[in-house]
Amino acid sequence: MEQETLRNLESQAREVRKYTIDTIAHLGVGHIGGACSVVEILTLLYFHEMRVRPADPHWRERDKLVLSKGHAGPALYSTLALKGFFPMDWLQTLNQGGTNLPSHCDRNKTPGIDMTTGSLGQGLSAACGLALANRIDRIDSSYIYAIIGDGETDEGQNWEAAMFAAHNRLSKLIAFTDYNKLQLDGTTEQILDLGDLEGKWRTFGWFVLRCDGHDIGALAAAIVSAKAQSGLPGAMPSMIIMDTIKGKGADFAEGLLTNHNMNVDRATADKAIAALYGEK
Amino acid sequence: MADKEMRAVYTDTLLELAASDDRIMVVEADLMRATGTGPFKEKYPERFVDVGVAEANMVGVSAGLSAAGKIPFAATFGCFASRRVFDQFFLSCAYARLNVKLVGTDPGVSAAFNGGTHMPFEDIALMRAVPDIVVCEPSDPVSLAACVKLLAAHPKSAYLRLHRKAVAPLYATDERFELGKGKVLREGSDALIIALGAIMVPEALKAAEALKAEGIDCCVIDPVWVKPLDGDLILSRAAKVRAVVTAENHQNSNGLGSAVAELLCEHHPMRLERVGVRGEFGEVGTQAWLQKRFGLDAESIAAAVKKALAG
């Protein structure tokens, strides 16, 4: 990736993070941890990788994303708003009665959301269905992306989908694990150890890569590899395991064991946002 | 018309639809040989998916297919189609306002030798609670073919309770069906029997015949659809009789009997008896033995009619 592109994406990611924090602070409470840990990948996908049309969100040949960890909705809403899918002021309506931006992603309410999620473990199966439909319809240009959480990986349905995607050689499916090592009740190691996560996906037949999930250049390189692999004979679905930090960039939440869902007041948020831009 | 395997009707109808609509797909979870959809796989291999013994993924993949515009008919035994994947169906299909037809085969005592583990007496109860979906249980080959076509044309998720075995036709081949509309199989002035599905509708007709010999004149309705229930039709016939009896191959709470009870209580309070399984789990046996065991037969229906009429 060219340095200028990278700098632009990094600055875009800062904006996405700013609005993510701001959106949650406006409401006063939210899933700040898991939203902040996926900011870089969402920015990279929507501002660099994905072929989408904000004015035509249902364009059949678009790339699609299933954010299976639906509670990270505020980060995706900030990304979609900045991309122009809907007005920025919608962000202030998060979780208010009648909003188009519910805490968990809803394909019927929010322009740009490709799949309704919120009950963990279901998104990867839907992504498989989307990838399979594209194959049937010979829409070869479209990639299906999915982001699953590390805690969410506890759900058995992911592993049903993992076998299915590999068996059906769904090579246009590129999934990401947000490996921030924390789940609601504690660390993933304490609660249900994921063990050799790379090895697990590899054994299930996937093309597996691992990188720093906050390093946009590294993420972009991983996607380039995954896409190159997808064109090879016998290509498999890809899993990019992103090492991330739950609450990344929200200084009041980052590194906090209990940052899954927390109260965020305005002053705290403003201070965190100022810190993002190097202000004191 | 001779008896016809319901599963063959299901597959033949899907083949017919698929010929002119390339959105139609069949999804199985390692029960293709039971559902009988092999001919669909042969004819349209690309539109047939077998996910293996993974019902949750079957429903999730179907949701994804639907989100891309396909119309998947996903089938497994009714016990798994309802209680095992209830959340997947609820969230990824119904709540997501997608168009997945979930098919639960071997309803109630038709699960026979598979026994209590496989005998859904609660699937209608679960599905009735899901907003904005359609629930139906056709009673014969003609109504089944009609239901499959109506469901395919209805762009919402649905639960089809499918009796797989051979049953005699109850309707003429040119009978017309509508979504949410029931059928009056015989008129009567003393009692109304509302019976659901391929086991209970014929039993209700037998009961009505037996009661006629005793001077009790029964109207019989096949509602076909539990959700939406044809309230207008039921109320129109309820108004002409002294008592109503429901009959379902399912527990007697939260299914057809409860739906009718709600309707009558709100609009036309009157004497009601509900024939169905009374708070018990299933068990093994022949279908005939199980019908006796759980009181899902003409004798039980006739007894319920007499009890209801006696006040």
Q: What about the largest sheet of chain B?
A: 7 strands, mixed
At the first level of CATH, the class of the largest domain in chain B is Alpha Beta
Helix content of chain A: 40-55%
How confident is the prediction overall: mean pLDDT of chain A? 97
Most residues in contact, chain pair and counts: A-B, 33 and 28 residues
Give the count of structural domains of chain A: 1
CATH superfamily of chain A: Thiamin diphosphate (ThDP)-binding fold, Pyr/PP domains
Structural class of chain B: alpha/beta
Named CATH topology of the largest domain in chain B: Rossmann fold
Major β-sheet profile of chain A: 5 strands, parallel
Radius of gyration of chain A: 18 Å
Query: What would CATH call the homologous superfamily of the largest domain in chain B?
Result: Thiamin diphosphate (ThDP)-binding fold, Pyr/PP domains
| Strand segment tally of chain B | 14
What general outline of chain A do the C-alpha atoms trace? globular
Note the run of SSEs of chain B as H and E. Answer: EHEHHEHEHHEHEHEEEEHEEHEHEHH
CA-based shape of chain B: globular
- The oligomeric state is heterodimer
What radius of gyration of chain B results from the CA coordinates? Answer: 19 Å
Q: So how many helices of chain B?
A: 13
Helices and strands of chain A, in order, run as HEHHEHHEHEEEHHEHEEH
Give, in spatial order, the strands making up the sheet with the most strands of chain B. Answer: 3-2-4-5-7-6-12
